[in-house]
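PROTEIN DATA CARD
Card holder: Asparagine synthetase B
Chain length: 420
Origin: Nonlabens tegetincola
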Amino acid sequence: MIKNYISCILLCLIGLFSHAQYVLVPMDADTQKDHLKAYGTAYWVLEQGIKVKWLLNYRGGSFLMPETDAIKKELTIRGVSYESLNEGETAQILEFIASPSQNMQEVVLEKAPKIAVYTPTGKQPWDDAVTMVLTYAEIPYTKVYDKEVLNDELLLYDWLHLHHEDFTGQYGKFYRSFRTAPWYIQEKKEAEELAAELGYNKVSEAKLAVAKKIRDYVIGGGFMFAMCSATDSFDIALAAEDVDICEPMFDGDASEPDYQSKIDFNKTFAFTDFLLERSPMVYEFSSIDMTTKRKVAKELDYFTLMDFSAKWDPIPTMLNQNHTSLVKGFMGQTTSYTREEVKKNVLVLAENRSNGEAKYLHGIRGKGFFTFYGGHDPEDYQHRVGDPPTELKLHPTSPGYRLILNNILFPAARKQKQKT
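Structure generated from the sequence above:
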């Protein structure tokens, strides 16, 4: 009788300790069905006040979270692959990751970051890769534009994305091809009216003021992510402070003579020693961009993610989490960056070495961080004005879009000092 009782107790204890208590969301290529929605689920869990462990370099950068009915239901609804683990299995994985012989690291995500997207009124989510993937992953965000930025409303947010903006006041250098297009005329008119409403005589002056507010937001501890033309035009605007680089069709008066010599590269975030493109008939801002200098066939266009030490450099490792180190290239107004014009203190996260170009950059400015990512849409190789939107449900495992979502979760991480 006593023997049977003890056996029953032992069976109950075995059942208790073998019961699954954790959920592993694998992010490798073979197992995960929807990498993009996996990020959205991790964000949702953080919103519930529950911490998530990001297992850097373990099965493509997997997520570990407590097992609850609500979390499993959310994963199932979103179509995200997951595995249930008991305490012993979880401990074994974490011990493996902690081993000095493994280039892996456990990072705790603590709080869902408040996200702002700098984008003009009327832009649809499919006009921009970040708003598309935020919408697909079901991650909430708030739109802000010039008024909100100049009113210091960025202080309400942890993370800011810059839409494909032109901070130089040259309307994206679309003059040659689209100056008679109704949309171009309308957008120019609206930009001029907004600048006047904000108290500026020129769009370039208003955009410079906005760029400086964004600069201060980063210096004060904000996280900024920018793609395509918002990257180089932002730096150019800062470098050209108090210098008129706009031709008459953009701002009504001539540019300053020899303005190239007046550019101050000390004011930029990422780029240096670049040459500005003076002609309004050329669809290019400066020598920073590699678009017209590229000699890469589409079928051979890939960029490589750099490999970092997860234990010593968790920040770049976090930003590069993926299920592949080789990612399909994609173009944009600013496709990639001339390697020699990237500042030495800026980290190149991904590159096409054969073509001498950097694709993905990260740096520190004051107390904050910035990331620049070249190209318009990771799943639309050569996006053109008027092209239909990308259907992300057709690309749920996109490695190019994963890089964007890495940046969105980055502010949620418990901060560790970067060694590189």
